Amino acid sequence: MEGGILQNVILLVDSYKNSHHRQYPTGTSYIYSYFESRGGKFPYTVFFGLQYILKRWLQGPVVTKEMIQEAKELHAQHFGRNDVFNEEGWNYIVERHGGKLPLKVCAVPEGTIVPTKNVLFTVVNTDPMVPWLTSFFETLLVQVWYPMTVATNSRIQKQILHHYLSKTNDDLDPLPRSLHDYGYRGVSSVESAAIGGAAHLVNFEGTDTLAALVFLRKYYHCNMAGYSIPASEHSTVTIWGRDRETDAHRNMLEAFPDGIIASVSDSYNIWDTCEKIWGEELRELVLKRGKNGGAVYIRPDSGDPPTVVVKCLNILGDAYGTTVNSKGYKMLPPYLRVVQGDGISYKTIGKILENMKTNGWSAANVGFGSGGSLLQKVNRDTQKCAYKCSHAIIDGKGVDVYKQPITDPGKDSKKGRLALHLINGTYTTVQQEGNDPKLDMLVPVFKDGELLKDYTLQEIRERAKLCSSDINVMQFLKEDSANQDE
User: Fold this and answer.
1) How far is CA 2 from CA 8, 168, 465, in A?
2) 436-443: long-range contacts at Cβ-Cβ below 8 A with a sequence spacing of 24 or more?
3) Which residues belong to any copy of the Nicotinamide phosphoribosyltransferase N-terminal domain (predicted)?
4) Is 299 annotated as contributing to ligand binding?
């Protein structure tokens, strides 16, 4: 995570930000900004990822004379002029603050579930000589949108899985590992995989994104955040040839004789593979594994997921038998399951589970994996994330700042110095003035280059866990589907 060509914090910014220090009114000494989700696809956000940004980029002395010189030369070429780059301001930070950033950040604790349209963190400069610094770091700080949105997307799917397990299974034991992260290859970079994969692990314990484990060790004090199993891919099956598909699956069983394995089974004919190979030719090996406490997960990877999953369950049920749980739904033997990793998103996972329920199958028979839809198919507008100035001190007087575009009321911004209160179980954004500061859920997390809070993944998971006050996820899916149809 420490590699790469961009190590100069002065360059982690949109170009035009460098001209803003000359645009504020004379006498401006403090600028106060806030970050929020203005709405978006999901009705709440799981706040996560700010600690990484603060630790990785802003903690300690982060500005040097060498960085300033590098930035000065680049900006002169980039803009074709010498009156844009704020050399004086950056030199002041090095000389007066030893290269530490005179900023204060207050934020809701990571893992908190906050309805949209509420303040999530605030930023203000602590030295009146550098008011421009607050807005300068918007570019970097707003990138919290990514881990926050992935964590939210992941948690919505956890709610869906929880709903169907509650309806069709005796317990919720499968839930923590019921959605596996397959997204490493589907994201834009190794860093994206690490950040997004870590965000998923706020809610679940299953992942194949190793970078996320390294990330959480370094930035969130978790020695081991997620787990995986031996699993085949199409190349390790098809390399044996079509006539030797049975040998490929047998080799998988023998190479890893104990524990849980997953074997992709749609290389040629998923129905024949389930019925003849798994149901007949390899049946004794599967039973033997079961007696030793292991299990086999059969993985289809093509076709219409709701249809394919149920048909696989039916074939395997005929071959191995089923029992009926206390909720009245069929269960495969505990040593046999299906894992569906193709086409999984918050939009499709409920459709698969509903079709299983309709056909009498418990949700506990299937595990899921998600890749691009989990880590990549999101953007800043998914939750309409924005960072806006809401207050300033000019000539010693406080001034509330806001925008109110006539062409889009959805982009109205908040004004004043903000606080987040939890009133009768409901989060509400209020102005600090006239309200009890003890009620503010925003806590100082960073000041003058020093980290003030250092959360662990364990406590973040505790805050993000499902609770009785959660939204009705099935109603959300219904409304989301209706909105897509409009």
Assistant:
1) 12, 46, 31
2) 440/106, 441/108, 441/109, 441/112, 442/106, 442/107, 442/108, 442/119, 442/121, 442/122, 442/418, 443/106, 443/107, 443/108, 443/109
3) 8-105
4) yes
Query: Cβ neighbours of residue 241 under 8 Å, at least 6 residues apart?
Result: none
Residue 486, pLDDT > 50, answer no
234 is in an annotated binding site: yes
300 is in an annotated binding site: yes
pLDDT at 1 over 80: no
pLDDT digits (tens, 9 = 90+) for 65-109: 999 999 999 999 999 999 999 999 999 999 999 999 999 999 999
Among the listed residues 139, 131, 110, 121, the one whose alpha carbon sits nearest the alpha carbon of residue 22? 131
- Show the 3-state SS of the chain: CCCCCCCCHHHCCCHHHHHHHHCCCCCEEEEEEEEEECCCCCCEEECCCHHHHHHHHHCCCCCCHHHHHHHHHHHHHHHCCCCCCCHHHHHHHHHHHCCCCCEEEEECCCCCEEECCCEEEEEEECCCCCCCHHHHCHHHHHHHHHHHHHHHHHHHHHHHHHHHHHHHCCCCCCHHHCEEECCHHHCCCHHHHHHHHHHHCCCCCEECCHHHHHHHHHHHCCCCCCECCCECCHHHHHCCCHHHHHHHHHHHHHHCCCCEEEEECCCCCHHHHHHHHHHHHCHHHHHHHHHCCCEEEEECCCCCHHHHHHHHHHHHHHHHCCEECCCCCEECCCCEEEEECCCCCHHHHHHHHHHHHHCCECHHHEEEEECHHHHCCCCHHHCCEEEEEEEEEECCEEEECCCCCCCCHHHCCCCCCEEEEEECCEEEEEECCCCCHHHCCCEEEEECCEECCCCCHHHHHHHHCCCCCCCCHHHHHHHHHHHHHC
pTM beyond cutoff 0.85 = yes
Q: Is 283 marked as a binding-site residue? A: no
Tell me the one-letter amino acid at 457: L
- Assess contact for 203 and 464: CB atoms under 8 A: yes
Residue 485 pLDDT > 80: no
**pLDDT over 90, % of the chain:** 95
- Report the DSSP beta bridge partners of residue 393: 30, 398
- The phi, psi pair for 413, rounded to 5°, reads -110, 160
| Residue 4 labelled as part of a binding site | no
Question: Is 89 annotated for ligand binding?
Answer: no
Tokens of 165: 């397990």
| Residue 102 assigned to a binding site | no
Q: Count of residues for the chain? A: 486
